[in-house]
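Could someone model coenzyme A with this protein?
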Amino acid sequence: MKDIVCRPYIFNDRSACLAIFDSNVPTFFAPEERADFCEFLGGINAEDRPYLVLTRQGSVIACGGLIAMTETRQAVLAWGMVERALHGQGLGTRLTRARLALARTIPNIAVLRLATSQHTRGFYEDFGFIVSKVTPDGFASGLDRWDMTLRLT
Ligand SMILES: CC(C)(COP(=O)(O)OP(=O)(O)OC[C@H]1O[C@@H](n2cnc3c(N)ncnc32)[C@H](O)[C@@H]1OP(=O)(O)O)[C@@H](O)C(=O)NCCC(=O)NCCS
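Reply:
Sure, complex below.
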């Protein structure tokens, strides 16, 4: 983990992030979600839509961010993912800790929300997220949607 760098997303990371998305299709993401991810990447900004990448030796290997909605004192964890071949090596934990730390730097955020699938809800439960709603096939056929929340203290 010492060789992993966490830094803000820059425009030149776009194709690497899309490649990470593609590596997680179809188990974790449905192909039809790609257009939404492209649109999201186009709207990243430092204020209310910060996005982070993890790099190793200059290569982007994980990415994930937040959408802050200070008027409702909430933020949404958005588009978090690790290169498929590198799952299970602690990178997701490193990325999630960085996103939680980032959320805590934004004033007036009391609750974090996220929507994930049946495949990764256990990962987020380990961080204290609690399920609020389960929608079978909510993302795509066979890919359920688990809405989860975490109260920041
Ligand atoms: C969720 C994700 C980020 C986890 O990343 P990762 O690098 O594999 O996770 P880590 O290696 O840090 O795992 C940390 C712990 O969580 C556990 N874990 C990992 N994925 C898990 C899962 N899907 N369900 C339950 N536990 C999981 C690991 O076993 C590990 O536990 P341990 O420390 O006791 O061994 C990764 O599976 C991913 O990128 N998925 C595709 C994208 C996705 O579905 N994102 C959802 C939000 S949009």
